[in-house]
Amino acid sequence: MRKWLPLVAICAGTFMLLVDITIVNVALPAMARGLHTTFSDLQWVIDLYALVLGALVLTVGSLADRVGRRRVYLLGLVAFAVSSLGCGLAGNAGLLIAARGIQGLGGAAMFATTMALISNSYSGRDRGIAFGAWGAVNGVAAAAGPLAGGLLTAHFGWRWIFLVNLPVSVVAFFLTRLVVAESRDPRPRPVDLPGMLSFTVAAASATYALIRGNWASGPTIAAVGLALAALALFVVAERRSRSPMLDLALLRDTRFAAIVVAGALLSAAAWAAMAYQSLWLQSVLGLSAVRAGLVVLPCSLAAFVVSAGIGRILHTASPRLLIGTGLLVIAAGALAQAVLRSGSSWPTEVPGLVLIGVGAGLSIGSLSSTAMAAVPPSHAGMAAGTVNTFRQLGYAFGIAILGEVFRAGVARVAGPTLAGPLTSGSAGTVMARSASLAHMTRQAFADGLDVTFAVAASLAVIGGILVLALVGPAKERGASGETSRSPESAVVP
Length: 493
Description:
This protein has helices spanning 5-22, 28-35, 39-67, 69-89, 93-111, 114-121, 124-156, 160-163, 165-179, 193-212, 218-240, 254-271, 274-284, 289-309, 319-337, 350-363, 367-373, 380-431, 435-470, 476-483. It is mostly helical. The chain is globular, with a radius of gyration of 21 Å. The two termini are 32 Å apart.
């Protein structure tokens, strides 16, 4: 039993950082009431964590190879615990958002080191078992996020979705110090600080512009300009670097580029709209946080069951067909949810949620292995890291883009004055004023979510077409062969 203690320590951190991507969704209405947030505040609470996690994971991984993976993992645990305490004690939206950013930094430090620590801790058959358990923890985290968020919010308050991380972090920290050995790369790559900084500024500025909207305003135009300038600096930095964070030459391979873009579109299409669906379930339909978590649970369970079920055929199946078909199934699931009327209730959404889970289960298991097969072996790690980075950024951008679509859809029915309170968690208060306002609110949310899911479906269709058209059969056998050996987070955003 003692030999599995390192796995327990590593998986504890992995579980926390992945749960915290989705656990927030069902707590949004309670946060809005407790902190009197705006709709943009709610978007940043979700988005900043995923944005920082995605933007920094590649660079933090390079740093860990140099200074020690266990050390960086432990520092990540400390940052995650302290920021979780800050989230739980935050007295206003600004402090909560800032603490979520630090949480993302801690999550990046843990996520960037977990697979290397497992690989160093185990060998042979034990390594395969360890990676299988790690993948299962990924799946359980995705399924547990909404339900855990609902239970904690309903019985203890929304702050406990963050405070519960403290005891887990403490146990994981001391267990890691006791049983996990330090490891480094004997030939580490230099840390690409210019690439990291320019990439992070570009992603953050673009996200700010998308969340802020109002495209004719000075701040939004300035944010777009900053994002473009930072992106140009990133390209220059990567071309000049002897050890770039992302070798831009890889993007010349249309197969690799298609997989990277498809990974981002998948996360945006499959998961991002659920944050706004949660507002409808609780603030309009009046479901408790627990019931709202249970409504979306079939999506995670379907993804987990499908990804586990196809594991036996991944070594022979075509990744192009699995990923491409999965994205099209996600599109069908999103369209199946774009059928709301003012009198619709939660059962209307369940078939579409199940389809999204099935599509995610088909797609995600092959993403990194297919990307690695499309590049030289020396760049396999960079390829897998790039796919995971863009999956997180796709989720962050999806929250921003679909949030703007949702807000505009609500405003078309409710008007700009009422759209603010409705989308920031106060729909119940508005509905209580009169029967006509209650009907208008239900119609506004129905229209807003319908167009949001329609846009999500279009993103998935684009991703599916890209994969089916550009990921040709020449590389499929190599990708399939790698799949069974390449650990992959099965169902998380």
